[in-house]
Amino acid sequence: MTETKSETFEDKMKHxxxxxxxxxxxxxxxxxxxxxxxKGVELTAECEKILKDAELKVETLNRKGADDE
Amino acid sequence: xxxxxYLTVGALTKYLKYKFDxxxxxxxxxxxxxxxxxxxxxxxxxxxxxxxxNSVIRAIMFSRYANGxxxxxxxxxxxxxxxxxxxxxxSGQYQIYAEKMEMDGIGxxxxxxxxxxxxxxxxxxxxxxxxxxxxxxxxxxxIVSSETGAAIRDMITTLSRRYxxxxxxxxxxxxxxxxxxxxxxDNLEHxxxxxxxxxxxxxxxxxxxxxxxxxxxxxxLKVFGMTTPVITGIGHETDTTLVDYIxxxxxxxxxxxxxxxxxDQRDIRERLVQSRNFISDRLSxxxxxxxxxxxxxxxYYKLKNPDLLYDQQAEKLVxxxxxxxxxxxxxxxxxxxxxxxxxxxxxxxxxGPDIRRNIEILEDREARLNRSIKIRMDNSKHxxxxxxxxxxxLSPTNVLxxxxxxxxxxxxxxxxxxxxxxxxxxxxxxxxxSIVSKVTEVNEDDRNQK
Lengths: 69, 450
Hints:
The structure holds two protein chains of two kinds. Chain A is mainly α.
């Protein structure tokens, strides 16, 4: 399941929400449910890891009219 | 007469009033201060007090002066007043009789701000429909603020705590003073060009003059024209500037602006845990359901007695097959009937156009032939009748009927008496009957003898 690496955090969260919604519907087959479950667990782990490793990146631009006086 | 050295209150008051009214400094006073206890009387007079940090003076503005004013005096406004100071005798209090009142400094700015706010509101700039929605999980945020000061530190700390995934670009900007208006406008332009998900325009608390840049119409219109959603957090909670009305989201403070820009990772983590629990729960429920269905099916009587599975179907198959045969036969019959009907139709109903035309010509000719034969026969019949009629008129019988008779001898009809001799036997025939007689005399052409 390496394809999820290219997804953004937002994509992953949305994907996860979608899986939750799908599993909430009874029409999904058992096989499909298993796949969704597997994917869902992967996504939660990935998202948690992303949050854990995240560090705020700050860049400062000084343009004309900068507050330097 | 000890009493003569005592003045009445009225006399003293009159004296004081005289002193006030005589004093050139008091007859024309220019006074500045803050309005308080403002009461608009129904007569149109305005009663108020003017104060500063140390003192207070009662004031009145008569309706004839109040009516021409460009603004409505309200509590707390800083004003410039022109008038005279005198004493109101019945209360003995000195007061300023205001003849002119104008807003002072920042007051004039407030007046302009109210005008701009009203105009922009009327033109729909504050309407909800113009508010751009914020992305739920922004990736990049631009902050237009001063690099120095607590506001930017608070915002960075908040973003880092709540949602460290985000990348922040700070555009260091002069946020107060006369040159800040253009700096803010330019840097907002630049921020919009960066194309990040959200722009935060924020500065910490300060005096109303310090915050005035954000009450400027040009700054507000710049915020309105941006394609990136803008969150404003200007000053303290009680400060609401013009840009706050026009921005997509108004935050009470810079810290609040940072909070509104990003989700809180604690919420996200909680949601992740809930999601995992939910999908686990759903899956095990589905597995349980599957298991119990399997149990139910495997104990089903038909599975224990497999013949039952297809008995019914076999019988149904036979019935269906019979039905199918019947239908086939019926359908074939019907089709062949329709085929022969069609054939008949072809025979009678579709002669070639040539044949049909020839038939018509033939019929026409036959009719004409019949007609001309009839005419001919009619003509012949007619002339025959005529001939018979003329024949009748020639017949001896008709002559006899008119009373003539003819005479025959042994040699036939006698036309000349000379042909007869006396004693010859002649027969005279009449129209009805005849006689035989003997000639007794012969007179030859007695007509000639005459």
